[in-house]
Amino acid sequence: MRILITGFEPFAGQHINPSWEVARALNGLHLPQAEVQAQVQAIQLPCVFAQAASALTLALDEVQPDIVLALGQAEGRCDISVERVAINVMDARIPDNAGAQPIDQPVVPPGPAAYFSTLPIKHLVARMRAAGFPASVSQTAGTFVCNQVFYALQHTLAGRAVRSGFIHLPLLPEQAAHWPGPPMPSMPLDTQVAALRSALMSLLDGSSPTVGDVQLHGGTLN
Ligand code: PCA
After folding, report:
1. 3-class SS at 67?
2. CATH class for domain 2-204?
3. What distance in Å separates the CA atoms of residue 205 and residue 214, rounded to the nearest whole number?
4. Looking at 46-181, which runs of residues are DSSP E strands?
5. pLDDT tens for residues 74-109?
6. CA–CA separation, 82 vs 137, rounded Å?
7. Where exactly are the structural domains of the chain?
8. In degrees, to the nearest 5, what angle opens at C-alpha 170 toward C-alphas 161 and 148?
9. Does the beta carbon of 144 lie inside 6 Å of ligand 1?
10. Taking the model in full, what pTM does it have?
11. From the CB of 4, is ligand 1 less than 6 Å away?
């Protein structure tokens, strides 16, 4: 079993991105205690609209993964946010790392409006919570590079027997300590890494539904 985990380079003037720190902490992880032998490979993606999707495609070709977890930083989130859906739009509130700021452009012009995660998102949330980590389902991955990568991932793998999806992570404490503007929630790196490790284990330990997902509430009223 091969697991690809992607994380992003820092963006928006930050010097660190929790998604890459978590991905690289899990790189090379061997999960022999799982019911199947599994090996994790981490790849960093540029926070650049014009490059991120092709870097992802290259990684998919190289690794030929069975499971893909794409990770990104989401400042303001207070828990591990398992994304439900990727939408076919790029609408950037800030420029990417190459200075591009697309407005209302499709990720894939002929593509459908949206793709759902093919990860059992409720199962992941339930298992992370049971292991003591705050986690929830998120109904939007935004309209910046994370959503673009999530959409490109689901588009590329559509119809293939690969489970893939996106998880947004809170800021690291050292980022929140110096964040310009209002106070931000944060979570220490070792907690984030342990939460993702438990998410991975829950995909591999035989408890994960192979079709569909567990029937648990994960919605919001607005
Ligand atoms: N977060 C941004 C892009 C890169 C990252 O880590 C996002 O949520 O789109």
Report:
1. strand
2. alpha beta
3. 15
4. 67-73, 80-83, 85-87, 114-116, 135-138, 163-169
5. 999 999 999 999 999 999 999 999 999 999 999 999
6. 5
7. 2-204
8. 45
9. yes
10. 0.97
11. no
